[in-house]
C-alpha cells in the first residue's frame, strides 16, 4: 500500500442547500395566521487548509471524493433548516492547486492558509420570506441551490531536500533505510520502489529529509518505465544525489556510464519543462490580469553529488578506484559507501547537510501567510443573451441566457408549482430578460435556453407573460396565466368583444325584421277583456 503521495486528483462538491417550505400558520381563534414556512439551510463548503503536521497527500489519495454536508430543510412555524457541515481538508505547506487543464488556482503557503474549492449552495427561501404587501400568502417556496462541483489537481511543491536517483537496484532503498528510520521495501529485483520513500536524517544540528526516487532507465524522459512520473518527483527536491551501483552484474555498465545516462535523462526532462513553461507564459500573457509562474530551476543546475554504493563487495572498491580519476576530471568527488556495513554513511550525511544548507540559504525566504480576498466583480451586465445553433431546437437555433442570477433562479424554481413558475417569470422580467430577447430578435414561440451546456432549461418564450402575478386572483400555488394553453393579447380580447357586439346587434335586427313581417301574431282578449300574459309581458 502507498505510504507517500505527492500528487492527487480530488473530486469535490459543495453541499446542496436545503429546500424552503410553504406553510400556513394554524392556531385556534386565528383564522388568518399567515405564511410561516422557514428557509432551508446553507450547504457545507469544501475547504483546503495548510496543516503543518501533514507532509503527504496520502489521505486524499485514499479517498479522493469529498463533499460538504447538505443543508437542512425548512419547516413550519418559522423553523429554518440547519446549515451543512464544512469539510476541511489538511494539506502540506506549499501545495499547489490546479484545474484538470493545468491552470493554477492557488499556491497554499503558510500555516492556516485556507481556500474554498467548492462552495455549498444557498438555502431556499420559505413562503414567509417570500410574502409581501401584494403577495400576502405565497403558496410556494424556493428550492435549495445545488453546491459547486470541481475536479482539482493537488501537487506538493517540495517533497524532500535530497533526492536519491540512479538505476534500478542501485541500493537507494537500502541507503535510505541505513541513514534514517524509514523502512522501505527492499528486494533483489528491479523496480522494487514505485513511489518515493521519505526519511529524516540528522547530521549534527542540521536536519533534512531525503527521498528514495524510483529507478530511472534510458528513455525515462520519453515516458519509458514511468520515467516522467519518477522525474517529477526529482523536480520537487533541491539537492540531487546520484547513487551508482559499484557491483553491477551487467557487463556494459559502469559507474561513469550510469552517471552519463542519468544526466542525459535529466537534461532531456529540463528541455520538456522549459517548453511547458514557455507555453504557460504565453497563455498568461494572453490572459488579462494573470501572472506567469517563475520558471523552475533546471535539474542539472541544482547542487548534486555522486555516491558509489555497495563498497562491501570487493570488486566495487576496485571499480571505484578505477573511475575516480574520470570523475575527478569532471570536478566530481565520489563518496564510496556501503548501505550493508554502514561504511562512509556518517561522512555522507554531513556532506549532504552541507549542500542542503547552501540550497536553503540560496533559496527565497519563506513567504508569510497571506489573506487573499476574491471580491465579486462589480458592474457589467448581469446576464448575456446569445443566438446560437442548438441540435434539439425546432428551428435549429435558440436564444441562450447565461448569468449568475437567471441560472440560480431557475435552479431554485419548483416547476411543478404554477405560482412558482409565475414568480420566476416576474423576476426575469424585472431583470430585463424580455427586453434583451426582443433586441436579439426573439419572437413569440422562440426557444430559450437558460444556462450553459446541454443540461440547461429549455422553454418556449411567450412575451405576453408579463410581470404582475400578485395582482391575479387565484388559489395558492396557482397562476391564472398558466391555467390554459392560450393567453390572449389585448388585441385578441378587443376582437372578441367587437365580435360579441356585432352578434348581439345582428340578433336584435333579425328579431325586429320578423316582428315587422307579422311572424309575431297578437292573441284575442278573453271574456273579461284582458290580454294574455305573454302579450302583456311583450308589450311591457
Radius of gyration, rounded?
40 Å
Strand content: 15-25%
Placed side by side, the strands forming the largest sheet appear as 10-11-9-12-13-14
Approximate helicity band: 25-40%
Low-confidence stretches: 465-472, 534-540
- Average of pLDDT: 81
Structure report:
- The chain is built from 12 helices and 18 strands.
- A 6-stranded mixed β-sheet has the order 10-11-9-12-13-14, with helices on both faces. Strands 3-1-8-5-6 form a 5-stranded mixed β-sheet.
- It is of the alpha/beta class and 540 residues long.
- The protein starts with 6 loop residues before the first strand and ends with a helix.
- The C terminus is likely disordered.
Topology of helices and strands:
Blueprint: E1 7-13, E2 46-50, H1 58-62, E3 65-67, E4 87-91, E5 95-99, E6 104-108, E7 114-118, H2 127-130, E8 149-156, E9 160-165, H3 172-179, E10 197-203, E11 206-212, H4 227-235, E12 237-245, H5 255-286, E13 304-309, H6 314-329, E14 334-336, H7 345-362, E15 384-389, E16 397-402, H8 404-411, H9 418-431, H10 433-439, E17 447-450, E18 457-460, H11 490-516, H12 533-539
